[in-house]
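User: My instructor asked us to take a sequence, write out its structure as C-alpha cells, and then describe one feature of it. I'm not sure where to start. Here is the sequence I was given:
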Amino acid sequence: MIRRGIGVQPYTVGATPFVGLLDTYTNAAAAYSVRLLRSAYTGSAIRVRRSSDNTEQDIGFDGSDNLNQSALTTFVGANNGFVTTFYDQSGNSRNATQTTAANQPQIVSSGSVILENGKPSLQFDGSNDFFNTGNKLLQLNTTVAAAFDFTRENVTGTLIGQWSSNTTGRTLLTTNQNSQGVAQINILNFFNSTMTVNNNIVAPSGMNLIFWNIATGSNNYQVFNNGNNEYNTTITSIATNVNTAIGVLSEATSSTFFDGVLSELIFWGSIQSSRTGIETNINTYYGIY
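Assistant: Let's start with the prediction itself. The C-alpha cells for your sequence are:
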C-alpha cells in the first residue's frame, strides 16, 4: 500500500497514479488549494482553529484528493472553524498565515463546511480577514490563477494585494459588487501614490476563474475571466520589494478587505503559455463556467 499526503487514504499498487495540476504545470512559486495539487506534496491543506476551545489541527486530504471534510467536521464539531494557515503546496514553504483569531477566514459554520459550487471554500468577512504570505509573489513575470466568489457591495475589496506602505509601481487584483448588483473585477495600478483602474471586468454571479499574466512587453499583461480575454496592455514596472497578501491591501492610509470565498490561488514565477490547459483543469474541478 502507498500513501499520498497527510489525511489521504491508501490506494492499491497498480491503481492509476495521481496527477495534479502542478504535476503538469510545474514550478509554481506558491499554491494554495482545498484539493491536492501535486503528487509529491505530503503536507496538509489547511490548519484550522475551532471556536469551542481555540485548539488547532492540520486538515489534509481524503482518498479522492479533496479536502478531508470528515476530519474537518469531526475536529470542529457543531462549532465554527477558522483557518490559521493555508499551506503552500508548491514545495517552497510559502505558507499563508494569520495568527490573530479575529482576522482568520472561516471554513466551518455551526458544524457545516462552507461550500461554493459544492467545494470547500474559505470565507473572508470583508472587515478584517486576511493572510500574509511573507513573500514577494506578485511581481513582473508572474502568472496568477484563482477560483473565488465575492459578495461585497459598492466597496472595493482586495483579493490579492501587497503588504507595504510603499505605493510606487504596485499592481493588484480587486473585486466589488456595485449598487446595481453587477459584479466587477478590477486590476489596479499604483504609481507615485496615484491609483489607476486598468480594467473593469463584469463578472457573472457565482464562482469566477481569473487567469492573470503580469509581464513587460506588448500584450503580455493579460487578464482572462472564465476563459474570456478581458484585457491586454503593456506595463513597464511593478514593485518587487513588498510582500504579497491575500484578502487585503494594507498601506499607510487605508485597508480594503476581500468579502467573499476563495478555494484556490496559485502563483507561478514565470509566464504560463498553457493558459487553456490550466483553466480547463481548474474549471473541471470547480464547475465554474
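For the description part of your assignment, you could build on this observation: The domain at 21-271 is CATH 2.60.120.200 (Jelly Rolls). Try explaining in your own words what that tells you about the chain.
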